[in-house]
Design goal:
alpha/beta; Rossmann fold; six-stranded parallel beta sheet; seven-stranded mixed beta sheet
Length: 378
């Protein structure tokens, strides 16, 4: 069904947090350049784990903070408008429009917590899967059947920049007032209660700063409240002043991953995204998360934390970090296997997603998208 009063195809994306904007931006930024398409954003901020109270009823302010300045609609308005495409990196049903010709799920993470493998995704017309692993998991969990046309292996547009040559390590580090000549460690924990920042962040940071390295700390941008943590980490990190140290409180972790020579994480999606660079990973053990409410969904057997070194005590970082910086090839083979299973043809996912969306809209795709093969379906 077409909308005859419209000269352009209208696309709506819901992004209830900064990560959602980061996930959708590679696709939507390119669609905005097409005069045949009009792109809009919406959100329901009170549904997120954590949000700025000032933004509750002012979603334009929220989107402006993330450099989205046009096409912002309140979800109460967007729900009652008809759309060609509804694009979502989350599963909130409260922002889904009542009519969209095609509803597309693009997901928001690929960690072993398996939040992406979600029964609520069945309500979407198409699932833009990151890679073969997620196709298998959806079928194994019986959320869909083998051959279901809504399964489309696209890749993960968010991480195309890690491999497409568009990022500059020196510039990223200099932008954070860090010396590019030094090895750089990124500490990026997950946002669940019981994460490594909340339980042992002080010890991790102090131990890493004893080493002759740059340290970047990137807390989760919408971490859940943790009643057992007395530290306001975002406030603390804003005020922390130390040589060779930088805190990044934004939503886009991709440039930081690219700039880092080694990653320290726990149960975050970044532990898998970083495998695309085949560099060392250290997992801090987080038993509250591993054995917590999400434990039944987790998949620690397939890949889990096998692509890195698992430690319990921050003191172990004193020995392990220098060793891995000197021997970055440790576990390289398994990291490459993880990357191949989770991320389909990285560097081309955005173009493949665009090609599929143009097909959904019955529009001829831009010529450059035809150089990338179509999504693998079913």
């Amino acid at each position: 069904m077409r909308f005859p009063l419209r000269r352009r195809r209208w696309i709506l994306c819901s992004a209830n947090n900064g990560v959602g904007i980061v996930m959708s931006r590679p696709i939507l930024d390119r669609l905005r350049k097409d005069p045949r398409v009009r792109v809009f954003y919406t959100a329901m901020l009170s549904h997120t784990r954590q949000f700025d109270e000032a933004d509750r009823d002012d979603i334009r302010n929220f989107f402006h903070k993330h450099d989205v300045r046009t096409g912002v609609l309140h979800f109460r308005v967007s729900r009652f408008m008809p759309w060609e495409i509804y694009l979502s990196p989350n599963f909130s049903q409260r922002v889904v429009p009542r009519f969209a010709r095609t509803k597309v799920q693009i997901f928001h993470g690929v960690s072993f917590k398996n939040c992406a493998v979600n029964p609520r995704s069945v309500g979407f017309d198409q699932l833009f899967l990151p890679g073969p692993y997620h196709r298998r998991r959806f079928i194994e969990r019986r959320f869909v059947e083998e051959g279901d046309p809504k399964l489309l292996i696209i890749g993960l547009p968010k991480v195309d920049r890690l491999v497409d040559g568009s990022l500059d390590r020196t510039r990223i580090l200099e932008d954070h007032q860090l010396d590019p000549a030094l090895p750089t460690v990124l500490f990026a924990p997950t946002g669940d209660p019981g994460n490594s920042l909340n339980r042992m962040g002080q010890e991790i940071i102090q131990t890493l700063l004893e080493l002759p390295i740059n340290l970047i700390v990137k807390p989760h941008d919408h971490a859940a409240e943790d009643p057992d943590c007395a530290i306001d980490w975002k406030d603390k990190l804003r005020s922390w002043r130390q040589e060779r140290f930088a805190a990044d409180l934004g939503s886009d972790v991709v440039p930081l991953l690219f700039a880092a020579d080694l990653l320290v994480t726990d149960a975050s999606s970044v532990g898998y995204e970083y495998t695309l660079l085949d560099r060392p990973v250290i997992f801090m053990d987080v038993p509250e998360i591993i054995n917590g409410p999400r434990s039944r969904k987790m998949d620690l057997e397939t890949w889990g934390r096998k692509g890195g070194d698992l430690i319990q005590d921050p003191a172990e970082l004193r020995r392990l970090v220098p060793y891995l910086l000197e021997n970055p090839g440790q576990k390289s083979e398994i990291r490459r296997a993880i990357a191949a299973d989770l991320f389909y043809k990285p560097g081309t996912a955005t173009t493949r997603a665009l090609r599929q969306l143009y097909e959904n809209m019955d529009l001829s795709p831009p010529q450059e998208t035809l150089a990338v093969e179509k999504a693998t379906a079913g």
